[in-house]
Amino acid sequence: MTVVPQLKQQILPQHVAIIMDGNGRWAEQQGKPRVWGHKKGVEAVRRSVSFCRELGIRSLTLFAFSSENWRRPEEEVSTLMQLFLLVLQKEVKALHKNNIRLKIIGDLSAFSDKLVQSIKKAEALTAANNAMTLNIAANYGGRWDIVAASQQLATRVQQGEIQPAEINEALFAKQVQMAEQPELDLLIRTGGDLRISNFLLWQAAYAELWFTETLWPDFDQQVFSEAIAAFINRERRFGCTGAQIRELAAENKG
Ligand code: IPE
Ligand code: IPE
Ligand code: MG
């Protein structure tokens, strides 16, 4: 499906993140094991990446595995890891061909050497691509991100590079994941639950939130377009009044 042309003319989000939830329930509804849902979920990932690439969205960040997902049954965790490795090896060529840079965000220290090597290889291959960045959050937690940033800043203080009083929001923002990318504009969650589940806590400060009952394997261009259309119709005020925002918009137009 080609992207609705009207969408392209609007002010689009530059950075979209998605909590891809509902794979297990999708599979259960079909009387299949949960892992079947994860496998079908890969197709929704592919659709979402090409949708964003076509629209011209700069960054897409997908929550694939949270720092809490290790609590799941061993069999599900190991299938997810195998799937991750397989998809990484299989899809990276297509990403590269489409000029997409791949980044994995999360604590890689928990992954097998084989997986880490595969990640590094895929990132290196696509490092110079500049049409879009696809961030895959794996063993990611919003709190982990903030703690890791704090540790880096603490090290810099210890080494005498900066003073504690110099730590401010701007400096902190440079230490969290995806610091070099556009700010998060839109955060989508599929699967009907209304929570963040320890995803991008720092980065979501002023993101617009959009939730859908659609389970992740059913997520397609149609539903994604609904989210984008909702975003376009929102008034983002960033603490200002509506009148101030409309005045600014009029100035920019004139
Ligand atoms: C999201 O789907 C994928 C991962 C967390 C890896 P779930 O597996 O959480 O599916 P539900 O929420 O149980 O349906
Ligand atoms: C969030 O989904 C994590 C991912 C989509 C990878 P979960 O299914 O793990 O979230 P909770 O446990 O319902 O909050
Ligand atoms: Mg879930």
Automatic annotation (TrEMBL):
Binding site for substrate: 22-26, 34, 38, 66-68, 70, 72, 189, 195-197
InterPro entries named among the record's database cross-references: UPP_synth-like, UPP_synth-like_CS, UPP_synth-like_sf
Cofactor(s) listed: Mg(2+)
SUPFAM superfamilies to which the protein is assigned, alphabetical: Undecaprenyl diphosphate synthase
Catalytic activity of the protein: 8 isopentenyl diphosphate + (2E,6E)-farnesyl diphosphate = di-trans,octa-cis-undecaprenyl diphosphate + 8 diphosphate
Annotated EC: 2.5.1.31
Keyword Metal-binding: yes
Keywords, ordered alphabetically: Cell shape, Cell wall biogenesis/degradation, Magnesium, Metal-binding, Peptidoglycan synthesis, Transferase
Cofactor: how and how many bound: Binds 2 magnesium ions per subunit.
Residues reported to bind Mg(2+): 21, 208
Pfam families listed in its UniProt record: Prenyltransf (PF01255)
Domain of life: Bacteria
UniProt keyword Transferase, yes or no: yes
Active site location: 21, 69 (proton acceptor)
Subunit structure comment from the entry: Homodimer.
Record's function text: Catalyzes the sequential condensation of isopentenyl diphosphate (IPP) with (2E,6E)-farnesyl diphosphate (E,E-FPP) to yield (2Z,6Z,10Z,14Z,18Z,22Z,26Z,30Z,34E,38E)-undecaprenyl diphosphate (di-trans,octa-cis-UPP). UPP is the precursor of glycosyl carrier lipid in the biosynthesis of bacterial cell wall polysaccharide components such as peptidoglycan and lipopolysaccharide.
PANTHER family named among the record's database cross-references: DEHYDRODOLICHYL DIPHOSPHATE SYNTHASE 2, DEHYDRODOLICHYL DIPHOSPHATE SYNTHASE FAMILY MEMBER
Record-stated family: Belongs to the UPP synthase family.
Record protein name field: Ditrans,polycis-undecaprenyl-diphosphate synthase ((2E,6E)-farnesyl-diphosphate specific)
Protein species of origin: Alishewanella longhuensis
Protein encoded by which gene: uppS
